[in-house]
Design a protein that fits this description.
The chain is mainly alpha-helical. It has one domain. The protein starts with 23 loop residues before the first helix and ends with a helix.
């Protein structure tokens, strides 16, 4: 999904030297409302499934502040195997985008060029999925 300026919603871009968990709050805020049936679109997620890399008090606090139930595997306590049925969707999408080598490793210094290639890659992935079902 994109907004009026063409920026992908739910996508945030950060430097390579930042941990993914530092971008959790901006990413949660960037997720658009989802309409299910009639009525106003829901603005918040219900649950967040995340791996052990997000096992920080700060991440859980940020989720709860937005009324989101955090489903985050704890380091050293829980196995991350339970996340497998939800995690494969994310890994599959990363694999589809990794076919475009330029997106697997970020070579561009400018964020706008990287976002342009990301949009192009997402469009091509969607086109391939549409071709599969038609």
């Amino acid at each position: 999904m994109v907004d009026r300026e063409g920026t992908p919603l739910g996508v945030t871009l950060s430097g390579a030297n930042r941990h993914d968990s530092m971008m959790l709050a901006p990413t949660l805020d960037a997720v658009p409302g989802v309409r299910r049936g009639r009525g106003r679109p829901r603005r918040r997620l219900v649950k967040l499934h995340a791996d052990k890399g997000y096992d920080h008090k700060r991440c859980r606090r940020e989720c709860r502040a937005r009324s989101i139930t955090p489903r985050i595997a704890r380091r050293g306590v829980e196995s991350s195997q339970k996340l497998g049925r939800h995690r494969w969707v994310v890994e599959r999408t990363f694999a589809w985008l990794a076919r475009f080598r330029r997106l697997a490793v970020r070579y561009e210094r400018r964020a706008d060029i990287h976002m342009a290639f990301l949009k192009l890659g997402c469009a091509l992935v969607c086109l391939n999925q549409i071709k599969r079902f038609c």
